[in-house]
Amino acid sequence: MTKFPGIMATDQTGDVVPPSLSAKSVGSFAYLTVRDRLPTILTKVIDTIHRNKNKFFEEYGEEGIQAEKQTISLLSKLRNELQTDKPILALTDGLDDADAWNRYLQRQTDQHEDQEVSWFKSPWLYVECYMYRRIREALWLNPPISDYDVFNEGKTQSYFESQQATITLCTYFESFNKNMENIPDNLLCEYFNKLLQVSLWGNKCDLSISAGVDNSQKASPIESLAAFKLFILVDDSDSLWSTLVTTRQQTQSGKGRSCRVDFVLDNAGFELVTDLVLADFLLSSGLAQEIRFHGKSFPWFVSDVTVEDFHWTIRQTMAANHRSMSQTGVRWQQYMKEGVWSYHDHPFWTHPHEFCDMEANAPDLYATLQTADLVLFKGDLNYRKLTGDRDWDHTVGFDTALRGFGPAPLCSLRTLKANVQVGLQPGRGNKLSSQEPDWMTCGKYAVIQFHNPNPDKQD
Length: 459
Fold this sequence. Notes:
Layout: E1 9-10, E2 16-17, H1 29-51, H2 53-60, H3 62-83, H4 98-111, H5 124-140, H6 152-161, H7 163-177, H8 185-202, H9 225-228, E3 232-235, H10 237-252, E4 260-264, H11 270-284, E5 290-295, H12 307-318, H13 323-338, E6 341-345, H14 358-361, H15 363-370, E7 374-378, H16 379-386, H17 398-402, E8 410-415, H18 428-435, E9 446-451
Parallel strand pairs: 3-9, 4-5, 4-7, 5-6, 7-8
Antiparallel strand pairs: 1-2, 8-9
Helix pairs in contact: 1-3, 1-5, 2-3, 3-5, 7-11, 7-13, 8-11, 12-13
């Protein structure tokens, strides 16, 4: 089935684009997410807060108990609004990003004068992001538990239950890392591709798609790669490698500055470990001299990385009772101290905007990404924001779906868990749809999709 062109929409810039995915389409993955998965996540959040009421009492006394009750009351109200398709409400917490969110709501209202801006009628990307922002609001309005991470238990569990896979990965990396300067480029490329694919498939460990159910990595991440390779629908890893090697050559010849790679992170737990190992390889091999990690400024989509998760993961890896794992963690901590690794967050990452809005709505962040030599976008939510979470035809080019977003050469490493996928060969999407109707949402398939907005600079 060809989806594009079909029913088209016009965005605020006047561009004609496919409509946003939404729960208006009964039976779609967006509909099932809003009807089933999001209320399940909210119920688990409420349960987590309730189970910790004794902890709140011990830390804050009666004030903690009152905060627990009032937060649960607000979250229960939110769940009811969602399940009964009530209108989206403006934020009232007065946080720095509240005005941006409320302006976005007003824009939605102005664009859709013929219908309410509500949970089932509005863009899925918007309402799903909005739910997590409302969880943030419910906590913030109830000190002293305002900074409580309702998703921390699941993220911690995911890390520890993936420990054997982490040991295997660290042992594999340490086996050749000590001799990195003597490894020829063809073998270096082989190691790069393996660690890139481990980072790619690490994205299967997503707690929001499983509504918080255990989704940790149990099998050896290296031994699984051969079997998984068949399920990579687009593999631009050669372009990625070529970009890194060209930049390294320019750096070595004195024609270019040192190479910086930015990771726009997704999930904590095992996926974060795979990202850190890949980043370690880029530094150790000389393919990069600096790594910037971009994460979320508050708990988001159940398992997304916050600054607390990032530093906690490094500390836990350092403290592991396994030589290779602890050695790896110690080196990561040293990178942080030396400043060759750094962690950054920005409000835009927890806004509902498509990334093509970044230059206008977060020019400082866009300017930061422009100074990178490569930006790696991890995971499904980043892919949805890169492509606008729209009903694109599968054969539409990745560059077209980006709609002008291109601060630097970029690559999406993503396992498919939402109904948007571009850049496929003609007929591939139709064939997959006939063989496996849920191919876009089951997490079985993946893409490594690269875009260079200025290819001439690589010459």
